[in-house]
Predict the structure.
Amino acid sequence: MEAKPIVKTEKDKITPEKKVDIPLSSVKFSKRWAFWESYSAKSKTEKIISYDETNKQIFNWSDLITFFQFWNKYPGKDFRNIFFDGNNVKFFFEKKYRINSMNIFQEGIKPMWEDEKNKGGNYYQLDYQVQKDRMEEFAIANKYWKKLALSVMGGSLPYSEYINGIRFIDKTDFERGRIIMFRFEVWVNKDLKDIQKLEDLKQFLSKNYGCENVNMKKITL
């Protein structure tokens, strides 16, 4: 029996989707941001001499689209690719450095206490320890970090106008059996002086980022 050709009707035809132009103003942040990596040497006997060796600015952006163009290609979007994942320690570059933190700071502000715009401010510590379901807790950590970054850059985090930057730090304790720990830090500048506002931000972070004990510390040299 001769096969009959498939006849497409008007209903079956694929019509191209209409192009939608998104105005840049709708995805533009009020500030420019920069992404930094911080490094540590492979062993304690090795020393990183200069700040430029310890920290490196990787990318900067001023809108949501450009951020995701970078983030979707960056290996650290899943922090297990750069931090200790419970099995492997990752080393990078010819000098075999570990990436021990990812940092998102306002452009022009370095992720260091010595920066004039950080001096006299405060920072919040959100400490986590992976104890039970490792894969699930890693996934939650990635989710919280992305949520924190977008909230800070987009200005939806309370008092975000005072926030200079945030950090995601690998705090794994290799001396006590490779206990997997990590920390988020939120750095606020010295203009946020109101004690109640500082406490409100602390409580908000605790409630929304799965950390019961959030510590606030002064940035002092």
In short: The domain at 28-42+49-218 is CATH 3.30.760.10 (RNA Cap, Translation Initiation Factor Eif4e). The first strand starts at residue 28 and ends at 40. The mean pLDDT is 85.
